[in-house]
Amino acid sequence: MKPSSRSNTIEYAIRDVMVPASKLEKKGIVLTKLNIGDPNKFDFKTPQHMLDAVCDSTERFDMGYTPSEGFPEFRQAILDYEKSKNDIQATMDDVLVTNGVSEAINMIFAASLDEGDKLLLPDPSYSTYNSLAKFYSASPVEYTTIEEEDWVCDVDSIRKNIDEKTKCLVLINPNNPTGSLIPKNVVQEMVDICGEHDLFLISDEIYDRLTFDGKFYSPVTYSKDVPIVLMNGFSKLYLVPGWRVGYMCFHDPEGKMSGIEESVKKMARLRLSPNAPCQKACYAALKGPQDHIKDLIGKLHERRDFAYRRINEIDGLETRRPEGAFYIFPKITHKGWTNDKKFVLDVLENCHVLFVHGSGFSSDKGKMHFRSVFLPPVETMEDAFSRVESYLRSVKG
Length: 397
Hints:
The chain is α/β, with parallel strands linked by helices and 397 residues long. It contains 13 helices and 15 strands. Helix 8 links the parallel strand 6 and strand 7 (200-204).
């Protein structure tokens, strides 16, 4: 029996590299995994009041299904939170709780894209967008980002890639995998472009508060009539990636997306409901102490600075400094490799350090790059990068 043709389009580089890594682990080899954005795998811990809340909810709640869109009080708390940050124009009915941002991406694509539709993605971008667009028989079109300018979006490239089949524009800010932070004027221009061409904008803001030297700007703030689907979640900032709690909010002042929004709600009903106890605990996250955030950003800032400096010290690698999230996207300049995936697999085999190949995030700009997290303590990263440095010295270029 053959799998469906659509399933053969699926690629997810971040997890795909775990296949060869798992073979090494079965041999008893200990790996330093710098491939996945999971803070809890290192020295970051979920806030205690959230753990208390999830335990309490299992004792108090009947463990039945929740409303398909999520608990009303939780959705209202999300709306209040987004209004306080971005002044979003929405009601509680425009908020849906999802099983992580990944499910939100799946839902909005399924509800809005037909065969042959085009959507604009940053190059490089989080690979789920590209894979799911192809899964729904749409065409992802990559717009240029400029590495020499810290991966800022090239607005002219966006304009040049729009045609009559283009349906939406995706903004990931801060960007995964580069960690770039989009300047205010570029965010404003992207909103204007969507208005000029009757596109809706998907704004992935999962790392919005994880910034270092610059400031985050949401397109919602600058949209009076352009419809925006804002996506965010609790995995990163509140340190619960395994709970799979995200959300999407429809900022649609003129009701242009009402049909698509209703289709998303149909999909929410189809999947029954989000996780019940974790919704209760994430409600507590929004309403409870926020003390851990300052410590989280402080640690990441220090580790970002170290990773940026240390990677640039390695002959054969160079990198731009990320301004947000917890990813860095170095360029492979060593003459011993002409393929970034082979580089990653060779480093895995010889250094026991796991990265993600850059071409897994982009067919163009990702070539001869790799993504690393800078989540581990400095000592762990120093050990890993020193092994990589020694190996690169041993390889003739």
